[in-house]
Amino acid sequence: MPGFFSVNSRLYQALAWLSSLCLANLAALLCFAGVVTGGLGVLVLLVTAVSLFHEGAASLDAVWRAWRRRGLAATALWVFDLGFAALAFWEYQLVFDLVRPGLSLAYGAVLTAVGILVAGVNLWCFALLTWEGVRGEVGGGENGDAGNGDVGENRGEDLGTVKGFFLRLRRCLLLSVGLLPRTLAGLVVLVAPVVALAWLPEARWQILGLIAILGMALQSYLVVLLVAEPLGIVAFDRREGFRD
What we know:
Blueprint: H1 10-33, H2 38-54, H3 60-97, H4 101-138, H5 162-178, H6 180-199, H7 204-231
């Protein structure tokens, strides 16, 4: 069939899409192996997902630029997450040691609510950092500034300043609470493999294999679909004059 295997065919585009996600998944696994470098792994996954959604193709150049622009911030956020997770685990151990069941239940509910809030804010923070990095690579526009990669209400405020940091934190907090259904849907996507491992222990190797090959990158793409509209990320096939 003429053109079936051409670079413009749907088959080629689908294979390129899948290969990009698989390579991003592998690169992220290597970053996660370093523990502290996990933030860079999250950037790899999200930059690839955003690039596929926004540009129609992923590139190493986009990942490298995002690492340079927002790699330090992503690493700092990841280290904070590790510390918060360790503290939350320790607090949950205290909950189990409480004598009164009612107090234990109330304390556990508060910890769970705080954990969900922090996780939701993190989801938007990583997405925003990624979009700033990618937007700086793609160029300026009505939602961004080509000079500093800031988007939306953060435009003109560098992340390294106190004001720029708190502007982003405030925006992510408002997004996580104001768009609660999207936030919860994103968190469900992220915890789905953990739930699957708990409920289907007999299929744990298949689930782990899927996670190692494609799972995390696919999760990231689904998250991008959820956060794209609020962050002003437009799908490549809906923009005019994107390609030169």
